[in-house]
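Supplementary Methods S3. Input chains for the assembly prediction are listed below.
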Amino acid sequence: MALRLPRIGTSQIVALALILAANWVVSPQFFDIRLQDGRLFGSLIDVLNRGAPVALLSIGMVLVIAMRGIDLSVGAVMAICGAIAASLADSHPLPVVLAASLGAGLACGLWNGLLVAVLRIQPIVATLILMVAGRGIAQLITEGRIVTFTSPELAFLGGGSVLGLPTPIVLTLAMMALTLLIVRGTALGLMIEATGGNPRASALAGIGTRLITVAVYVWSGLCAALAGIVASADILGADANNAGLWLELDAILAVVIGGTSLFGGRFSILLAVVGALIIQAMNTGILLSGLPPETNLVVKAVVVLAVLLAQSPRIGAQIAGLGVLFGRSRSRRRS
Amino acid sequence: MRSLARLTPVLATTAVFLAGFVLCSLAYPNFASLRVVMNLLTDNAFLGIVAVGMTFVIISGGIDLSVGSVIGFTTVFLALAIERWGVPPLIAFVLVLVLCAGFGAAMGAIIQYAELPPFIVTLAGMFLARGVSFLLSTESLPITADLYTHLSDHALRLGGGARLTVPAIVMLAVVIGGMVLLHLTRFGANVYALGGSRAATGLMGINVARSTVLIYTLSSALAGLSGIVFSLYTSSGYSLSAVGVELDAIAAVVIGGTLLSGGYGFVFGSFIGVLIQGLIQTYISFDGTLSSWWAKIATGLLLFAFIAFQQLTLHLARRSRRAPAGVRP
Amino acid sequence: MLPTAPLPPPAAGHKPQQDASQQDAPLLQVTGFSKSFAGFVALDGVDFTLHPGEIHALLGENGAGKSTLIKTMTGVVARDAGTMRLAGAAIAPRSAEEAVKAGIATVYQEVNLAPNLSVAQNLYLGRQPTRFGLVREGEMRRRASALLAGFGLSIDVGAPLETYSVAIQHIVAIARAVDQSARVLILDEPTASLDAQEVEVLFAVMRQLKARGIGIVFVTHFLDQVYAVCDRITVLRNGRLAGSAPIAQMPRLDLVRLMLGRELSEATARRSHAAAGPAGADVAVFTGLGKAGYVAPFDLTLRAGHVVGLAGLLGSGRTETVRLVFGAEPADAGTAEVAGRRVTLTCPREAMALGFGYCPEERKTEGIVADLTVRENIVLALQAKRGALAPLPRREQDAIAARFIRLLDIRPPDPERPIGLLSGGNQQKALLARWLATEPRLLILDEPTRGIDVGAHAEIIKLIRDLCRQGMALLVVSSELEELVTYADEVIVLRDRAHVVRLTGDAVEVSAILAAIADAPAGAAAAA
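Predicted structure tokens for the full assembly:
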């Protein structure tokens, strides 16, 4: 009987369950959900709703990281696209607003993808450019003010609900489903995992690695745009300075918690989203427990370090070495 | 001649700065004064200090995203220590520098021994330092100690209203010290060697682990010093201060001609890179109609121009080197 | 890796005492070195003796154990067994650093210096002359110039190392090693990327060091260089000592035989050419294909049901040839014609569209994707050929994987196991399956039987024969000449990055191939 690794994802789901349980301990009403004016309310719904932007970012980020890349610009892209949406919301119909905003996200992603795939700039550096300039561009769009809007159509994307579920959750689920359909419904997922796992072997097997590289950055840009729209719609405005600030880090963290290695290869979109929910559940839990919300960053730092150390190639090798020893001694006993 | 070729990026940066200064002076007659230059130094002193540390890190092939948070932590710690816990300012300075150095050493050790990418480790460091400063205090705390008023009054008066302030003096000293350390010591040579080839450096018998830990220790200690200067400059401590300074510092280093992939660069270049960023800010404030966000966009454009230029020269160099060799890849 | 042990040629039988240089006590004496990696024996009881003032060639094909021997000698890899004495004293360095301190320095093909630092800094990194903690740049440069002048090199030592040719970089690396009081210098393929003139410069330096009494271990693939500069030759094959003799007692043919072949009498398994049907239509015709500095222009015709073998020493241009044919490296000269149509080959995708498949030599870095399952690895090329938007249904993937696992007897027969957990031979079979699944017209195999167990050898050879019978065109690179002659209809021998001899029909014999590789008179071999 072949030795199998534990079913992938168990640890993340257990972690999420534990955090939710802890939240329930500090706040017994945590799991209470009530229906009010056709929309569900409750702490659990809150976790999902507030986790939506990071979950959206992590959907794009997980593909980029699986290709051995990184996208530091998603926070800035959120700010740009949110600013576009907020500025146009009261003067243009919703389809135009969405097209302009999502188009800007695609353009940002294309820029990153071309820098990485064609100019062959290392991903951290390439996306750093937009991370720096992007916030300036967003401020240019809002002219440095906090732009507000009243358009109920756009506001619906942040505060409305579909079949009782808040729209951000629905949008996140839709984006996740679409991405899963595109990535796992085609052979793209396999090609991304192969390229991230071994770029040279994949190129020799005939995979168009360059095109796929551009595509994942474009998709990351699109996800960031949607996250920006949701964030703007939620606050009925755009704050170019603070929209999406540090969220690129949360998104990377979500992907890492979701078990995708920073060194590329195997990825799971679903678990990246679970990772985003874990982060949000911790945020909410800290809030509910009455601890100062500032504890958040410290907890995040500790979690990211713990996960990384567990993923570390050297420490991993040591664990694998133990496994080999164990396996050997067992087979020796058998023979 | 061969030795001079690598000065090209720094010379280009210096030329950009001088051209920018001349353009500003042509636009605004008051611009070309000693006072503006001195203000440029004072206003950007804290950035100049972290940029020196960042130069070491980037030349060694790493990156340090935690410096902005370390500055924030330092200002809050100082404000609390001096105002609330009654620690004498000078002892508080020493304490905070030791804390920061230890923090950097820990990050360097994790990067070295867990073989993790520097950006993610220092990212965690960024969360941690910012989180701890939030936990210490979320308010902006004024610092009223005598030493602070004394130090902010203290300045070399150069005539025409120009003052060489304490922060500016500290920055200039750090820049000169950084140049000596990087270009004239064994440690500096090791920093370059690490960026050139980490594996080869180890095979040449250099203690790679020690050097790596030292480099991040230096970067964090300088971020702490920068925090001290920042608190002098603002006479306060605030956990949200210096948000995003790591990006400004990286941008200054790259604009200063240092290769982001490591191995090449000069402390002096980073200093000029800081001045270029300061120049853009000063121009915007002189103009009055331009808004501050143009500074970010201009920095981004400069960053792109320099990175594209680096990539091009690397590509050309590699092509010319590969042609005669003809080994199989 | 046939189970027969190679017999040493007559020359190797002579006792070393007859050699002039052997009168001194040995400088370095390695006894019984063994090393296994996860069950694979890389080094099996190897002895090696180096005398002061001796240039000692260490030869062998890929996987022969040369690099493992060097790594165990310099402490980079821990050995499983064996002892080592340097000038009579037992040493056991645990790292390259300790080896250098003991007096054993290594200069690799990929020069292990910092390319961005100046020549002077590279020479003295970590031991620069200092005053008050500051490096005395002037003094360091003066010393560097003087040191290099001793090797006949007069260059600007303040310039970055990378602005100089690879030959000069090698000399700088050697100078650094010697200046750190190295008594044993290991040069690992220093000449692989040098032109003829640069090689001469390097040889001059080596002879000078020899005169100083330093012992040099010289690894190379170029036989001319061995005979030009070496005093003694040691050959490894399959991790074992194949033979060791003074240069005068090791003629070329014997040397090549030691490296590649076995005794001529062993080359019994001749291909029964009668069994081969008439060659089919031309699948691909290459005319004057080549790339400057990579491989000299060559003509090559590949026919259906026909196996063309490429033989030659490592670095002779075999892999380079197949990479041009597959478009993995774009050619800068020549034309390609596939099924009568002129085509351009600039990337693997184009070659695959024409029905080519390529199983590379470097299984780990260019073949498998270790994290993916056997099934995913098998369908990868077929999927890439169909395009991302036409995914193979899971059912079909399972069917393909199951078919090839059965056909090639891949073990364990678990399609969902990560391929990295399989043995080398089973990984190789899965890679073959990857290309067979694309139903290629032309299949290129680079060392298909290297580093795999004996059983898998036989199965892969049988498979090659079967494929040929089914009308596939094959182009096979192999160092296993006895195997090659059993299935190849035509063998092209390469030397120094050029196709030099083409053998067809009954001329396809181990002896003829060895003679061509050794550049010995063909008549002598043909008589055998």
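Chain B is about 75% helix and 5% strand. The radius of gyration of chain B is 20 Å.
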